[in-house]
């Protein structure tokens, strides 16, 4: 069997009045022209899956870990360690890793003073992000050397970086908040907080001090002066969150018996791949925004299906559009995924034949879904169970449905434990398939 999984990050949403006929409202998935997603949904099964386990915040690290078949309650230690794995950062026992976002906060003297405005620093580029992160670490080393002893900052994609603390300081009792969870809110109300003992409080205070210094330094950085002149938002603060220690995950091939590969613009999926032994496909021109090379991802997936058992394609663009409350771009991103990725992948899969009717055919299956809801109305993630559509060999439904939130909610196919969907997708109803 050949398998494909396509993750439309943050594509699920609530109805938006501007998208519906006569003001009735429609979700971006309902409004988008998606003939390929609809075709596979109508030919297969549509359901819902809860990707956020109880007790977890709804974020892609948790949700995508679930989608790959790993229970976050057993394996999740934090977001930053996953992304650090993608960058090949080596750690020792006791090292802590945090995600560092270069964000935009409201500047003094403006109506938005003190508010979190943009978790992505106004759509910062990777080159700008790397320059700001490097200069910020040098500033910290000059102004607060005791706080950053044995601390490094590793730039990643766009506005992202990894804060690596090898000093032995423990953050086990420190609570942090993702910046994308507090748009329009007072950022000082959501700074790191030490819970319980004095060690945790001191560790949280150290992070708060560094974040405060970052605001002083980055506000006047040359890159941000230039961005203001261009009418762009400045990346005027470093926001530290998502900390944890490096986890250990069972290899995917040992767990499921399949060789898998993944393509994504973001380090989160690449980190999960490295931690599980999934090979990472290199596709030039990938981006977390709508300038992503969708067609390049589609071509890569088509080619990879000849060499791997399972091909995973992750696209970040719908999520980033949602965080900017840009529903038009979100619709366009969903349509591009359908046209440039789902269509070509579905056509390629069909060349492997129908294993139900031809005993000599290899057969295939495809699964398409978001990892979580991201609401344009709030610019935040939401833990509502997401729709999924799967099609291929021995995947049939009595009722035909489109790939939308409402159709999925009406389905009787509900997966409450998100990490169980991968096993269901790969194995359900396949007792008669030959063992390779």
Describe this entry's structure for a reader.
It is a single chain. This protein is of the alpha/beta class. It has 15 helices and 17 strands. The protein has helices at residues 28-31, 35-43, 60-67, 72-75, 79-86, 126-143, 198-218, 222-229, 252-256, 267-276, 294-304, 317-323, 327-350, 405-410, 421-427, and strands at residues 2-8, 45-49, 96-105, 116-118, 151-155, 160-165, 174-175, 193-194, 237-244, 260-263, 279-280, 310-315, 364-369, 373-375, 380-382, 386-392, 414-415. The strands form 4 sheets. The chain has an 8-stranded mixed sheet, sandwiched between helices. Strands 3, 4, 5, 6 and 9 form a 5-stranded antiparallel sheet that branches. Strands 7-8 form a two-stranded antiparallel sheet. Strand 10 (260-263), helix 10 (267-276) and strand 11 form a beta-alpha-beta unit. Helix 5 packs across helix 10 (267-276) and helix 6 (126-143) packs across helix 7. The protein is globular and about 70 Å long.
